[in-house]
Amino acid sequence: MPTDSKADGFVVFDHVQKSYDGDTLVVKDLNLNIGKGEFLTMLGPSGSGKTTCLMMLAGFETATHGEILLDGKPINNIAPHKRGIGMVFQNYALFPHMTVAENLAFPLEVRKMGKSVREEKVQRALDMVQMGSFGGRRPAQLSGGQQQRIALARALVFEPELVLMDEPLGALDKQLREHMQFEIKRIADNLGITVVYVTHDQTEALTMSDRVAVFDDGRIQQLAPPDQLYEKPENSFVAQFIGENNTLEGVVESIKDGTALVKLDNGELIDTVPVNVSAAGERTKVSIRPERVEYNKERLQEGAHTLKAEVLEFIYMGDIFRTRLRVAGNEDFVVKTRNAPDQVRLKPGETIEIGWLPEDCRALDA
Amino acid sequence: MALPTYATTGQKIWHYSYLTLCGLIFFFLIAPIIVIIPLSFNAEDFFTFTPKMLALDPEGYSLKHYRDFFTNPNWQQALVNSVKIAPVATLLSVSLGTLAAVGLSQSHVPFRRAIMAVLISPMIVPLIISAAGMYFFYSRIGLQGTYFGVVLAHAVLGVPFVIITVTATLVGFDRSLTRAAANMGADPVTTFFRVQMPLILPGVISGGLFAFITSFDEVVVVLFVGSAGQKTLPWQMFTGLREQISPTILAVATLLVVISICLLTVVELLRRRSERLRGMSPT
Ligand SMILES: Nc1ncnc2c1ncn2[C@@H]1O[C@H](COP(=O)(O)OP(=O)(O)OP(=O)(O)O)[C@@H](O)[C@H]1O
Ligand SMILES: [Mg+2]
Q: Could you tell me if the ipTM is greater than 0.90?
């Protein structure tokens, strides 16, 4: 996590703390460095302080401690209306007494742009979200997805360099959500704007972002590109929060040559990658992704570690098989395998051997 | 109001007695107002129905009391005074009341409940107490007996209505709208006039109507704070009742009722229109 290379960040949170009541810290020592043109997502459970961070950036809340820099300049003392940051609100916040076109023209009018320029920009923004013919309607006459697109167009119409989005897709159904995810990503890339996006949907975070900041308890738990976040979680919170995860508990026996030997609670020994364990004797949670576990002997790679497992449940899901196993005392050990022609279909009660590569097996904090 | 077919006898009895009760209450409220209308066309100088009127004889009716109202300089001066005082007082109440309501709706304002209570108090304190207090206070600072003094006093009486109606509309006001406006670069004043004001307009209009009617109907405070130069219509009616008992009062009352009905209708239409603009009801 680069925390001291302040100079290159477009948006920089520098040791920011926030408390609403002067007692409990909602945001504890936030350090974040967002590059220009980056799509950064804040992901985290409810109440972890994501909206608070966004509000501090937009200027509606003040940081209790620390500094926020925008393009190298501290913005703690700049009024919200002078920051020039676009924002898509969770509930859209479209002005109900104005038509769609008037809503979009509002930021341009405030900037004293001429009528013809205004009309042209409004039309361009509406076309961009494929709502070109809706300018005369009122927000109440639009569907949720259409309102969402207007809110997006309104945040972009005055060409801000930085756009904040607070769970903008929260109210939409799955299909429209996926469509809009794609749309937002496409528009952001085309315009080259910097986006700070808040969500608690991990799929959304993984598919849209350049980097994801996983929040919990007012802190960033990990800041990484989606693939690293998923494949190389740095602590057990991130491993649990992002995607499906299998956890085996045990004690570190020894650490040498970049490998930690872990003695599981049922006595079995496995090789793991030590991530945040440092000494023998520490308790650890070992994390393995369900799709990195293999039970088909012919497919087991060389060097793979094997363990005995009992099949508890076999679920046919079409494209994949989802098998629940009992492994080293854990009854929620899940394996996902692709539905290939030669794939074995297991039956409950069978005892099998499973295996994985040691590098897919990460020893994290307990 | 039709009863469902499954209503029991008990429910039917209750339903009809309920309707009767409502009718009685309605009659009790409306009758005194309705009865003055035919009486104001009385050809005699009486407050009662003459035999000719009851026989619907056209000779029993006349417009003489209306003629009196429009020619008598006392009444004319009173009308002019009322028309000069009420709108200005309303304007003051509406601007101050709206600003107060908007300010007091912000959670960071200290002592907001206490401030609100003080501003609402003219509505709760007996009018005669407020009037006496204002009399002594305004005498001290030289406002007693002046036009501005009466306007100010009436504005104070109107402010609570505006605060209450505007506060009620603000309850449903989405704060993220003002944040959105600020985010798009609008300063607080622009935000207020372009975003907040249009949306709370129905409350402002209703409050303004109440403030206007308060000033237009008010007699106690103006008796204390005003002087002969600020004799309003209610004041003139009051003296008329005590001194000459002329049915001109009935003509004036009828006119006031008609004006009130027109005002209410216009304001209600305006309110509906702006409510439609807020997108709260289907177009
Ligand atoms: N205005 C406020 N006054 C006091 N406490 C607040 C305020 N706003 C938020 N909080 C508290 O701050 C914490 C973080 O809130 P925040 O809204 O930032 O969470 P979030 O990560 O956006 O959650 P969600 O995913 O539910 O939107 C919560 O515990 C919340 O109760
Ligand atoms: Mg939130």
A: no
